[in-house]
Amino acid sequence: MPDLTDRHASVVGPVIDFDTTIEIVASEGSWVTAADGRKYLDFSTGISVSNLGHQPPTVKRAILDQLDKVWHSGMVFRYESMVSAAERLQRVTPDGIDKFIFINSGTEAVEASVKLARKVTGRQGVIVFRGGFHGRTMGSVSYTTSKAKYRQGYHPLLGSVFVTPFPRPFRWKMTQEEATGRAVEELHLLLKHEIDPSEVAAFLIEPVQGEGGYYPAGVDFLTELRRLGDEHGVLLVADEVQTGFGRTGDWFATSGYRVRPDVLAMGKAIANGLPLSAVGARGDLMDSWPPGAHGTTFGGNPVCCAACVATIDTLADVVPQVDKLSTHAFDRFGEMQQDLAVIGDVRGLGLMIGVDLVQDDGHTPDPGAYEHLKAHCLEEGMLLLNCGPDGNVIRFIPPLNVSTEDLDRGIDIIDSGLRSYRG
Ligand SMILES: Cc1ncc(COP(=O)(O)O)c(C=O)c1O
Predict the structure, then answer these.
(1) Could you check whether the bond before residue 156 is cis, i.e. omega within 30 degrees of 0?
(2) What is the CATH topology of the domain spanning 57-318?
């Protein structure tokens, strides 16, 4: 029998580009076990999906209990787990987000959010921010500008989508304040020259850019979007698919920033690994989105909703601990940065930390450093991901309930990997 990698290659299309060829056979907490018996510290967390680590017992129990009752899909019956999931979301989402719908994936949540915005405002324009990642389906890929590769070969994309800069202080060699000023200025120019605000349905933004390189938008930039939105009737749509469910130290990054979105796209960690996503919105907006204007077969599957309820209940004790772990991780990366010229910048919120690896000039991205580090981590039994258009930013996203010991173990491995890099 050929090994799994060969069998995979002969029957699974290569377009879905897996990060490693490791075959996993078991998982628990922050660890996964490979078929050869090796254990890996999993700091990839499925790109911020398993915020509670692998197989959290409370979520597993809820899934099994629900399986014994109902696991039908298809917009026919009402069921307890969906209503409970929406009630939980209402409790943890930013003030003003009152009603919810459930779908299956992040990209669908973004598409549904924009459909809602277009339908209720009667406007078509959407403004997005360069470097954003919003998914891969035709609508969402039209909003995704983190890498040209994701759009290459798929044109024409959706019309009336306008791209404006997102503040990137390190890349622009500016302070956060200067970068915010530049991004605000560009946005105002866009609204003057390309689309009148009266025709814009939504600003679609990640409050911390994920795939784009772990850049926080900053409170001043989000506040300006809120102000412009209120002035011109443009909805603020926060894509919190990656930042949600405690990742940034608050339930949602917009709650931490105290900037109220009108629409909130959620996914990834919402059910700690089962396929579920949701859109939340102001009650008046949801109520003016008429019945049948959107739909789904599998969205809000009862088992996924039960997992969501248990995930949120379990996270309630975990989210308040994130700040402490975050401070510890930032301190350690900060110390490392003093010693190692390859670290150009350390940024992010909570346990969503980007470590920008650069060449000797202190600024030019060094993807080779990340490739060296990734190989080192695999050797040492750790899984890590990167982000940013150049692939040079460490995407540090451990489970939120990681032990301090495992957190330090992971950072130690990164430290030794970067120290052994010779450019
Ligand atoms: C911010 C953001 N939005 C949307 C998506 C798309 O989610 P999915 O892959 O579940 O479709 C992602 C996925 O990485 C994301 O990070």
Answers:
(1) yes
(2) Aspartate Aminotransferase; domain 2 (3.40.640)
